[in-house]
Amino acid sequence: MKLPAFAFAVTSLLTATVSAQWDHLQQLLTNHGKTDEAPVLESGVVYPVDTRNWRTLLQHTDVDWLVLCTTGEENCPGCAIYEQAFNDAVQLLKDKKDIYFARIDCDKQALLCSVFSSWGARVYHVTHTSKPSKGFPGMTETSTNLHPIPFHRPGTETEAPPPSGSEEEDPKDKSSTPAKRPPPPPDAHWLAEVVREGRWREMQEWTGLNQPFEGAAKEIVYTWWWIVSLFSGVPPMAMMIGIGLLSRYVTSRFTGRRAPPKRQEGAAAAPGTAAGAARKRQ
């Protein structure tokens, strides 16, 4: 029984992932814990992150990062002000040597933004902690921590004015619907304060199975979104044709139902003609 193409693709990806991790471990052991792939980092520079270097930059280094996930105006109207706030925060922190900056373009790196659960604009603070290894006594393990950071100072959500032309909720009128206030504008000074004063520790850390770096299901999540990205790039017409061919194959393969051969009229009339000719000869 042949393995379906879908299962073969998943198996190949998992094998490649394990192989890549083993190659990285071998490189660490050979180069005494250093990697040749990691660039020489400079403060105040925003480094682009993609599916090839995201682990090298964000996980396999021991420095802190402030990472922006952003989307263009075509797919996210209004996201430009969030990116501008991030860039302003970078300028405010350019003299700080222990923080580096990265940017993920979700229009080009949809797979990576899906792994980070970032659609629109979002900021993460990335740190690394070392702890004694459980499997290898006398050695340490480094874990990568993620803290989502809001673009505005917590507690300012109610300070934004209601939309123009809307009315405030009347407490006596139970049928009135309160006007939904827009989110506060992004604050670059708040983002800089989060880094300078270490207020990222006050934010809830992203933990759990789907954490991109340390989650137990991180490879499954990555594989899932990789498959989704493959299907999203297929034209709708090709998808419909493929589904039709697949359903036809499944029907014929597992049900065994095939259309009977069409009976030809000439072949059916031949026995009668032969019988009449025999009677005439008699």
Describe the structure.
The protein has 282 residues and is α/β, with parallel strands linked by helices. The chain has a domain of 165 residues: Glutaredoxin (3-Layer(aba) Sandwich), CATH 3.40.30.10. Strands 1-3-2-4-5 form a five-stranded mixed beta sheet. β2, α3 and β3 form a beta-alpha-beta unit. It is extended. It comes from Orbilia brochopaga. Keywords: Membrane, Signal, Transmembrane, Transmembrane helix. InterPro entries: Thioredoxin-like_sf (IPR036249). This is Thioredoxin domain-containing protein.
Defining traits:
282 residues, alpha/beta, Glutaredoxin
Question: Which residues sit in consecutive blocks of at least 5 with pLDDT less than 50?
Answer: 13-36
Mean pLDDT: 75
Question: In this structure, how is the largest beta sheet organized?
Answer: 5 strands, mixed
Distance between the termini: 61 Å
What is the approximate shape?
Answer: extended
Q: So, CATH architecture of the domain at 42-156 and 183-232?
A: 3-Layer(aba) Sandwich
How does the SSE layout of this entry go?
Blueprint: H1 5-30, E1 46-48, H2 54-58, E2 64-70, H3 79-92, E3 99-105, H4 110-115, E4 122-132, E5 140-149, H5 188-196, H6 218-232, H7 236-255, H8 265-281
Helix pairs in contact: 3-5
Organism: Orbilia brochopaga
Transmembrane segments: 224-247
Biased composition (Low complexity): 266-282
Give a brief description:
This protein is of the alpha/beta class and 282 residues long. The protein has helices at residues 5-30, 54-58, 79-92, 110-115, 188-196, 218-232, 236-255, 265-281; strands at residues 46-48, 64-70, 99-105, 122-132, 140-149.
